UniProtKB/TrEMBL annotation:
Entry membrane topology: Multi-pass membrane protein
One GO cellular component, as annotated: membrane
Listed name of the protein: (California timema) hypothetical protein
Subcellular localization(s) per the UniProt record: Membrane
Family membership noted in the UniProt record: Belongs to the amiloride-sensitive sodium channel (TC 1.A.6) family.
Length: 79
């Protein structure tokens, strides 16, 4: 087992502890403070370098609006 100053590798003796905190280990902390996710910030672990899990879904949405008016165009010279 390789030991560093801040961490160690888990072994078979750690299975009961890992099972007890399974929810915490399987939930990554949101990367920024978002209203309504206070509990997730408390019961999750931070992993800034981790990629999202395959089951995670994030949608980025951008909308634009413009006024449109009814207008007739001369299409006689089109193509």
């Amino acid at each position: 087992m390789q030991v560093t100053s801040k961490s160690r590798d888990c072994d078979m003796k750690d299975i009961p502890c890992l099972a007890r905190y399974k929810e915490k280990w399987s939930t990554l902390r949101p990367t920024s403070k978002i209203d309504g996710l206070e509990m997730e910030m408390e019961v999750s672990i931070s992993c800034e370098e981790c990629l999202p899990a395959c089951s995670d879904t994030t949608y980025h949405v951008q909308t634009t609006s413009a006024a449109m008016t009814k207008h007739r165009y001369d299409m006689s010279d089109f193509l």
